[in-house]
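Here is the promised in-class demo. Please do not try to memorize the tokens; focus on the logic of going from shape to residues.
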């Protein structure tokens, strides 16, 4: 089974999980990336069964609208029963690294508002300890060099993601070689650096459930 087929299977599994809970006024939180895209495409066939969505990126908003699914501003929505999104890595405690697609800040905001975060991944994202995937940090452009020096003091090797501007007009530093022994503490420590908007550790608000695609089928993982 290819990685793409595993992603398709978890997108379908997430859809099967939420379908019985959809009501005509339901608004869904929708993430960003290739797995989230597959979920959006599968969701489209059921668009008459719910109200619309809040998207964690312009790219996802565009895809939802192309399917005819109404997209709401988060400021006009107070209740999101589900947030469905992928991840770059997850550990046994359902802590995540996200932001490979540079959408980490909006992803973290939509996840914060949502009741249940259903994370959809293929088995290549499973690790014992987070940190093989470089940790994305969204930074206000003028603070880039300062924040990079501070990240070196924390033991990481930050690299500027050239040519990438986030939906919020900021830049991304990808931090290599971090030893993430305490994801919650590091998430907080990096967010304390002046000029950082947020970082891609989802530990204070991790996933509620992981649906993981494997060649043998979709596994459900809870902490
Ligand atoms: O955090 C993300 C985007 O910012 C994505 O969820 C993450 O990069 C996984 O993407 P994919 O589903 O394409 O593997």
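The designed amino acids, position by position:
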């Amino acid at each position: 089974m290819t990685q793409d087929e595993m992603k398709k299977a978890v997108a379908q599994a997430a859809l099967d999980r939420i379908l019985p809970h959809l009501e005509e006024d339901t608004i869904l939180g929708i993430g960003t990336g290739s797995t989230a895209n597959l979920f959006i495409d599968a969701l489209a066939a059921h668009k008459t069964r719910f109200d619309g969505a809040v998207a964690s990126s312009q790219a996802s908003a565009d895809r939802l609208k192309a399917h005819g699914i109404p997209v709401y501003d988060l400021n006009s929505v107070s209740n999101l029963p589900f947030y469905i999104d992928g991840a770059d890595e997850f550990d046994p405690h359902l802590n995540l690294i996200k932001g490979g697609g540079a959408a980490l800040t909006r992803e973290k905001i939509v996840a914060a508002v949502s009741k249940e975060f259903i994370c959809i991944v293929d088995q290549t994202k499973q690790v014992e300890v987070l940190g093989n995937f470089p940790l994305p940090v969204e930074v206000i452009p003028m603070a880039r060099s300062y924040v990079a020096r501070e990240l070196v003091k924390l033991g990481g090797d930050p690299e500027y993601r050239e040519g990438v501007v986030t939906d919020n007009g900021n830049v991304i530093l990808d931090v290599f070689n971090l030893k993430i022994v305490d994801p919650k503490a590091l998430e907080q420590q990096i967010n304390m650096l002046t000029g950082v908007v947020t970082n891609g550790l989802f530990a204070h608000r991790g996933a509620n459930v992981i649906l993981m695609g494997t060649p043998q089928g979709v596994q459900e993982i809870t902490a």
